[in-house]
Amino acid sequence: MELHVRDDLQCHRCLGPLVLTARVPYSFSRTDGQVVSGLRGISLCASCDRNDPPAQGVLAYLVLNPTVADDDAFAALVAEWACRKADLLVAETVPEEDGPDQP
Ligand SMILES: [Zn+2]
């Protein structure tokens, strides 16, 4: 998983600043049984994602630790959040080659 903590990107939902972005691998089975896999871009917005429990964990950590070190606790929180996001993406099941491009 590629992870970027940043504040210079805009949320596509509310146009506020994003907290972080990541690219996560995902895959799903089509109705014909073929497995489709790729990378999807996901983003964390402090406003739009505030009611999502895994996102709350990441946001709370960042409030307490504004400069993220190479920290196992943070990695675990992000992994939980990313897994949930990836599950939601699979649930949407939009067969695309890749996610929205991040500049
Ligand atoms: Zn937002």
Describe it for me?
- With 103 residues, this protein is an alpha+beta fold.
- It has one domain.
- Helices cover 32% and strands 26% of the residues.
- The protein has helices at residues 53-64, 72-92; strands spanning 2-5, 18-29, 35-45.
- It has a three-stranded antiparallel β-sheet with strand order 1-2-3, with helices on one face.
- Strand 2 (18-29) and strand 3 form a beta hairpin.
- The protein starts with a strand and ends in an 11-residue tail after the last helix.
Short description:
A hairpin with a 5-residue loop joins strand 2 (18-29) and strand 3.
Keyword list:
103 residues; alpha+beta; three-stranded antiparallel beta sheet; binds zinc ion
Unreliable stretches: none
Count of helix runs: 2
- Number of domain modules: 1
Number of strands: 3
Task: State the end-to-end CA separation.
Answer: 17 Å
DSSP strand (E) fraction? 25-35%
* Major β-sheet profile: 3 strands, antiparallel
**Based on helices, strands and strand pairing, what is the structural class?**
alpha+beta
Give the CA-based shape: globular
How large is the radius of gyration? Answer: 14 Å
Q: Taking all residues together, what is the mean pLDDT?
A: 82
Helix content: 25-40%
